[in-house]
Design brief:
The protein is mainly β. Helix content is 0%, strand content 58%. It is built from no helices and twelve strands.
Length: 124
């Protein structure tokens, strides 16, 4: 069964740091691009950062070198290290397998799996 489990959200002061982690269960980690998205109250969900199977990374413009995404293929885990947090970073952060194809038996599925989300609150 495919499951994505986030952890590490919480509260931080502006300028502080938090680290999010996502453990991935099921036959998708090595077949999918992994990503972090966020949804702030009243706003649409947006991509924060992504990392391909080969380690190629992508960051949203608003990250501005403050965040670092990493991938641990041995533990089927991705992390998002967030530094210099701003109040605008307050949102629910979601781990996702959002690109690629994985197999389950003889069947193939597009990578479109999501975690439950973890809340990040940044105060001034």
């Amino acid at each position: 069964q495919v499951q994505l489990m986030e952890s590490g959200g919480g509260w931080a002061q502006s300028g502080g740091s938090l680290k999010l982690s996502c453990r991935v269960f099921g036959n998708i980690f090595n077949n999918c691009r992994m990503a972090w998205y966020r949804a702030a109250p009243g706003k649409q969900r947006e991509l924060v950062s992504a990392i391909d199977q080969d380690g190629t990374t992508e960051y949203a413009n608003f990250v501005q070198a403050r965040f670092t995404i990493t991938r641990d293929n041995a533990q089927n885990k991705i992390d998002l290290e967030m530094n210099m947090l701003k109040t605008d970073d307050t949102a629910t952060y979601y781990c996702a397998a959002d690109r690629g194809v994985y197999s389950k038996g003889d069947l193939y599925f597009s990578c479109d799996e999501w975690g439950q989300g973890t809340q990040v609150i940044v105060s001034a």
